[in-house]
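Predict the structure of Molecular chaperone Hsp33.
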Amino acid sequence: MAEAAAALGQFDFAGDDHVVPFQVEGLDVRGRAVQLGPMLDAILERHHYPAPVARLLAEVVVLTVLLGTSLKFDGKFTVQTKGDGPVDLLVADFSTPENVRAYARFDQALLNKAIESGETEPEQLLGKGVLAFTIDQGKFSQPYQGIVALDGTTLEEIAGVYFRQSEQIPTRVRLAAAELFDRDDAGKPRHRWRAGGLVAQFLPEAPERMRQPDLHGGDGDTGNRPHGEDDAWVEARSLVETIDADELTDPLVGTERLLFRLFHERGVRVYEPRAVFDRCSCSRDKIKGVLKGFSAEEIEASQENGEIAVTCEFCSTTYRFEPAELQPAE
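Done. Here is the predicted structure for Molecular chaperone Hsp33.
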């Protein structure tokens, strides 16, 4: 069933935790934009991450949501970083059609040192390593994984490299996260997390406009702009790059209003928003199935005070089992 499009003002704003697909016909650009509020706040506050770690994981969650909601099949999309910095692991996954979960692993001593020295930019916290994008369509298909290097550049730039290398689609990604300090309805101080992002891709329908940019350094290299790059994409990318981080996270701006600011002169259309939720895929039955694969010695070694407790790294839910539950049926 085709998605219905509408001009700004023809329907209610999507609000937080809803991904808004959009199209700019005058520039042959399609994309998605989102502002995350309560859903993201729940994920981050559950783990009580230090602010630099929370901010970094928030960007990964936004990236995962933007890309995961583009899947046209039932499956899972995962973004994962592995690096040698203070934050050595970040994982976020999106399970169709709407479920998100995420967690971060970090070295507290290295993080404290980084904070003391003022080295808390995302690329400094991640260090050198890899960023992996994994698409899993289930048991009837082999997972696809694309890997790009964590090379000291931002997550925005690394995501752009992924699209350029794996899909050969000109893409610009913008990501931002912010802390909000305000008061609740009772007037008490309140701390919240918000994040936002946008992905724009050049997807022309005319074959003659689908040529890829030439590499720098060849004959006719222009320096600032790859030779042969389409004017429409140059304009679209330039507009996207004017977005301030505050605009992506400001609850008073809203996703549709931001898109209107950027592209109204070119005829931006927005489509039906897609809600996303903080929902983990763990369950007692799944974990029990894993534990039943343990040997008797492993079961014995895993016990504490006569029971086995397993805590999900994503949602922090703890499942407790009696050793007798895990014995094979006679």
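Confidence is low (pLDDT under 50) at residues 6-11, 210-227.
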